Amino acid sequence: MLVSVPSETGQHHPITFSPAFIRAHSPILGAVQEGWSGRLDPDNTGFIGVETFASLVHSHELPLDPAKLEMLVALAQSNDEGQICYQELVDLISSKRSSSFKRAIANGQRALPRDVLLDETGLGFYKRFVRYVAYEILPCEMDRRWYFYQHRTCPPPIFMAAVTLTQIIVFLCYGARLNRWVLQTYHPEYMKSPLVYHPGHRARAWRFFTYMFMHVGLEQLGFNALLQLMIGVPLEMVHGILRISFLYLAGVLAGSLTVSITDMRAPLVGGSGGVYALCSAHLANVVMNWAGMRCPYKLLRMVLALVCMSSEVGRAVWLRFSPPLAASGPQPSFMAHLAGAIVGISMGLTILRSYEEKLQDQCVWWVVLLSYATFLVFAVFWNIFAYDLLGTQIPPPP
């Protein structure tokens, strides 16, 4: 189907929609396209009044989510004549939201009612949890309502749950095998694991990732697992498995590569690189949108989170330089914590601030991605050449 839409220069350009696209968003989109050139837009201006669209929905008894109805009003309020352009209407119906779309929403949403979700009654347990996640993660009331009404249970947030479960299983297996549950790295057999990152095994590239499944002891595993479930799962529910898994693994890889550059003799265990990437991104997003965040006791929780994260880094530094027990070699490095935090503040914050937007359309995303790729290339060459050039004495591989 062809629909003529005016461009910024006033010329009309046809837009083609496939039958599959219309069926995917019917019956509303089909009804709009069938009547656009007739009673909806007889002058072929590319705009439609809200009252006209409302009468179309009412006459055809078409379903429309409450969040989209509110956004329709907001879009109309952002226009001086109370109209909405065709492309914005299509984006609204098909759940596509660009930066310009969100700006139009923001300009028109001032008169919309606030805290509508908090007034919702009769919700089941899961929908109350979804509402809780919306207020924990998203800083804008419009985004919260959009997420609440658009949320689907499939796919579930399986990435963070799978990572946490795997870490627990691996820890239990090594704990039973070594008969040690605290400070496992001091056991002579621990570093022989094929999962641990060790500078003597840099050629085994998988170790730059798999170290995240190993942990120093019960205290580090408990801290990481708690944060992954409390922060990682809600983030994955809102932003999706692809974005959050990419951020987590980017923090993990940055952690091991940073250790190979800054602490060249040290091994590395624990998922702290990925955990700190998620937590730092979330905390930075909360700070930058402080007024809009509606999570309860946010100041107290922010302080507690910073204290806990700082304490974990301090514990890692202490174990690295002042080991409480005699060890056969250097203890795991703490630099992965700092590298993960940097990834979270840069790449992670860009991801979290782009809810329901395409990252590839944003210039800042490409700048961050290019910076990360440059770091990766530098780190690879460093691992290939720097150890021999600098004559670094690394501990013998187990």
From TrEMBL:
Gene Ontology molecular function, alphabetical: serine-type endopeptidase activity
Subcellular location, record wording: Membrane
Reaction catalyzed: Cleaves type-1 transmembrane domains using a catalytic dyad composed of serine and histidine that are contributed by different transmembrane domains
Assigned keywords, A-Z: Hydrolase, Membrane, Protease, Serine protease, Transmembrane, Transmembrane helix
One Pfam family hit: Rhomboid
Domain Peptidase S54 rhomboid: 204-353
Location (main, coarse): membrane
Gene Ontology BP terms: proteolysis
EC number from the UniProt entry: 3.4.21.105
Highest taxon, organism lineage: Eukaryota
Residue ranges crossing the lipid bilayer per the database entry: 158-177, 241-261, 273-292, 299-321, 333-352, 364-385
InterPro entries: EF-hand-dom_pair, Peptidase_S54_rhomboid_dom, Peptidase_S54_rhomboid_met, Rhomboid-like_sf, Rhomboid_IM_Serine_Proteases
GO cellular component: membrane
Active site: residue positions: S272, H337
Membrane topology, record value: Multi-pass membrane protein
Task of the protein: May be involved in regulated intramembrane proteolysis and the subsequent release of functional polypeptides from their membrane anchors.
Family the UniProt entry places it in: Belongs to the peptidase S54 family.
Protein name: Rhomboid-related protein 1
